[in-house]
Specification:
- The complex is a heterodimer of chains A (191) and B (211).
- With 191 residues, chain A is an alpha+beta fold.
- Chain A has 5 helices and 9 strands.
- Chain A has a single domain, classed as Aminopeptidase, CATH 3.40.630.30.
- Chain A is 28% helix and 34% strand.
- Chain A starts with a strand and ends in a 5-residue tail after the last strand.
- Chain B has a single domain, classed as 3-Layer(aba) Sandwich (Aminopeptidase), CATH 3.40.630.
- Helix content of chain B is 27%, strand content 30%.
- Chain B has an 8-stranded mixed sheet with strand order 1-2-3-4-5-6-8-7, sandwiched between helices.
- Chain B is globular.
- The chains are: A alpha+beta (191), B alpha+beta (211).
- The interface between A and B is large, with 36 and 40 residues.
Chain lengths: 191, 211
């Protein structure tokens, strides 16, 4: 199975060490950007994820590192749900460190993530969710070919307001027709 | 089942004892002696949308003995049996709780071959909502049904659930990928809160962004 995907701006790959996973996943779990629930994982649970299979390779929630092509260090992580037997729809999500926000890297990351899923599993649909308030994320989903599917009303409450989550998805044939697909490459970085 | 446990689970007239009862059904938690019957119900087509992997009695026993949800009754996952007045099984509810989001995800099922299935299904959903509202400050309950499962969708709608959207080709069911209908029940309290579209709260802006 090919676990390295990249385009001209970003690379999707497994975490190289527990320390790297800690610096990214644990650190992001402690931040609250106001657009999502804090996705906190304790160091103990992260270590268990890492020691199991490097955080990628089992049905259910998995994590991979995102790395900018213009810098060797990881800049965020990608959440990829891998399917159980018979599962035909899976979820993806991206989390970037704050200094990498606003550059459209989430678009690239989602393109790579959905390509990995569609190319390795018989999935029919890949979906993502974000709060209705998270305009950058909503735009990034549209830019990578996903379409608005619907709303989960009252997904959470913050500051006395009801926060809805918007669901976006892409079907297999829609992914195959994406103009950006030709810019997706597969292979490890041997440098 | 030990006699004393059997007595605890039944009224003196033989009716099942449980958390809540309606005209036809009583909801109570799962006992070890129920597992074989429950496995049969859980294995029916469409009983657990999106979880169509085989479910054996042994797998269910492991769930029953799970440390996080012993007796299939934990903080995050609960299973209710729906029993008829004569104590026979009619269906089940599985419930997952997302503590951080204050919401429940429920799955409802009545055995496919039961007569008056729709009447039982409506009662099943209504009893569950009644119970949840009695026990806690309930905000949101989500339920999913196969797009083609019109009976179950009608049970949900009768109990006050509203359709949020239908996601196409979401689960594999009887040989093909089919859509999944997402429903939710919102508490009046949650419905009354201002939603996102009515104004952007300050905390949602990044540092430096203009109000």
């Amino acid at each position: 199975m090919q676990t390295n995907y990249y385009n001209e701006r970003i690379r999707l790959r497994p975490f190289r060490s527990f320390d790297e996973a800690q610096e990214i996943v644990f650190a992001l779990g402690l931040m609250d950007f106001g657009h999502w629930l804090p996705e906190y994982w304790s160091l103990q649970s992260l270590r268990g994820f890492y020691e199991r299979d490097g955080m990628f390779g089992h049905p259910g929630p998995n994590f991979m590192a995102l790395e900018r092509q213009d810098g060797a260090a990881a800049c965020g992580y990608m959440y990829l749900e891998l399917p159980r037997v018979g599962q035909v729809a899976c979820e993806i999500g991206t989390m970037l460190l704050p200094q990498h926000h606003g550059l459209g890297l989430g678009v690239d990351a989602k393109q790579l993530g959905m390509s990995l899923l569609f190319e390795h599993y018989p999935l029919q649909r890949v979906f993502a969710k974000t709060l209705a308030s998270n305009t950058p994320a909503l735009k990034s989903m549209l830019r990578c070919g996903m379409q608005y599917r619907g709303v989960w009303r009252g997904f959470m409450v913050r500051g006395g307001r009801r926060m809805d989550a918007h669901i976006y998805d892409i079907l297999r044939e829609q992914w195959q027709a994406q103009p950006w697909l030709g810019r997706v490459s597969r292979g490890a970085n041997y440098a | 089942m030990h006699n004393s446990v059997h007595e605890l689970l039944h009224h003196s007239d033989g009716r099942p004892r449980g958390f809540v009862s309606g005209q036809h059904l009583t909801l109570r938690p799962v006992m070890e002696a129920d597992l074989q019957r429950l496995a049969d119900y859980m294995s029916e087509p469409g009983a657990r949308p999106g979880a169509e992997a085989p479910l054996t009695l042994q797998a269910l026993k492991k769930q029953f003995e799970d440390e996080k949800s012993p007796g299939m009754w934990g903080d995050e996952k609960k299973t209710y049996l729906a029993l008829a007045l004569d104590g026979s099984l009619r269906g089940f509810i599985t419930e997952r709780t997302h503590m951080s989001m204050g919401q429940h995800i429920a799955n409802y099922h009545i055995g496919l071959r039961h007569e008056q299935r729709d009447e039982l299904g409506c009662e099943l959903v209504a009893l569950h909502l009644r119970l949840l509202n009695d026990w806690q400050r309930l905000l949101r309950v989500e339920a999913r049904a196969l797009e083609e499962d019109q009976p179950k969708r009608a049970w949900l709608e009768a109990a006050g659930f509203e359709l949020e959207f239908v996601a196409p080709r979401s689960v594999f069911h009887l040989g093909q990928a089919v859509g999944l209908a997402y429903y939710s029940w919102l508490s009046p309290e949650l419905k009354a809160l201002p939603g996102w579209s009515e104004g952007e709260p300050d905390y949602a802006r990044r540092p430096g962004e203009e109000a």
